[in-house]
Every structure is written in C-alpha cells, then in structure tokens.
Amino acid sequence: MKKILVAAAILATAPAALAEGAAAPAPAASQQQPRVEQVVARMQAFYENTRGFDTRFEQSFRQGGMPSRFAGASATGRMRFRKPQGSTGPLMRWDYADGRILLLVKDRSWTFDPDTKQATEYAVDAANLSAAVTFLWGTGRLDKEFDIQRATRGDLAQDGVALELSPKKPGQGFTKVFLVVDPASGAVRQSVVVQGNGSENRIRFLEPKLDAKVDAGDFDPATAFPAGTTRTKAAVPGQR
To answer: Other CB atoms closer than 10 Å to residue 166's CB: what's the count?
Structure first.
C-alpha cells in the first residue's frame, strides 16, 4: 500500500501539488459565481507566476474495482515544489510522516522506502507529461488537454469552485480530475484523481507557504535520503 500511495502522488501532483489557504465559508446561494473559463484562467495564471510552495498535505486512496485491503488508506506529510529555472526541469519532494520520500528532479524520480532503506530511481519522460502536471511550471495548458466544466459531486470541499476535468484524449492514466479552486487567487485547495478502474487519489493541502523560495538543495538525490540508503534503478523496458 505504501508504494501505491507514493506512486499515486506523482499523478496527483498534477493538479494537486497545489496550495490551500485557510478555509473560507461557502459562498451564499445568491452570490454570483464566476464562469468556469474565468476560474481556469485565474488558476493557470497563478501557477505560471508562482516560484514554488511548501505545504503540509493529507492524502487518501480509495481502491476501485474489486474489494481490496488497501481501500481507505491514508497518509500525511510535507510537500515542496520549486519551479524550473531556465532550461532545468521541475523539482518536487514529498516527505511522508512514516518516513517515505518521493522525489522528482527533472527527468528522474526516486522513491525511498524506510522499511528497506532503499531508494529506487525511475526515468520520467518530462517532455510528454500531461498538462495536468506541466501547468504547474507554466508550460502546459489545461484548457487544451481537458474538457472542463463545473463539478456536481457533493463530496468535494466547499471552500472554492469545484471543477471536473475530462481528458480530451484517452491514455492519460486517469479518467477524470476534480479540482476545488479558490476563485480569488486561482490556487487549488483540493484535488481528486480518478483512475481507470475507479480508484481515487484525494489530496488536500494545509498551511501553505505560497510563492515560497524553496532551496534547490532540498531536491539533491545525493543528500535527500538518510545515511546508509541503498540505491537502485528500476528495471523498466525502454528506460535507461
């Protein structure tokens, strides 16, 4: 289950590596809601102009399809993101409360398992990531890759505008993304990523430091993991 939650975090960071401020009251029914296009544009602009963020998170995973002992798994921790500088790629780090670490550095990712004291390296095709990820660093356009409408499901946070994103092309690894967006700032308060089998990865961010000056040294694979860590590369066909 630990590996499932860590792997799901990469996908969830697409829209969910995002920030949540203090909870705001739900808008009155009589208050005019902004149009979906306005919310999407404000969200896109917010992340294009944000240098980085540092925030706590709460994550839960609901297994779809057949019943599983993994259903209802949850985790907490800290997430840091640094926007690419010049030609460098994204820098993202998730530190879980139980000692797991997920690190994304340019075209490589690492997962650290505290039980085995092993960090496994994976290749990431950053050039072909979905806009659900790349809009974080100002290159992907959500409205180009997704059909976006106001969400109607009732289990989403009530402190923002709820959006439903459906990929225009299949094969993204997920079928829908739900975002709860602060209509004033454009920051995402909550995300729910729905996978093909109905599984859901839900992340909510707490006490964010927006536009934070995150230290690039926090993402150095040579020092990110505890002393004595064994390093290995994942055996994935076609990757080096």
So the answer is: 15
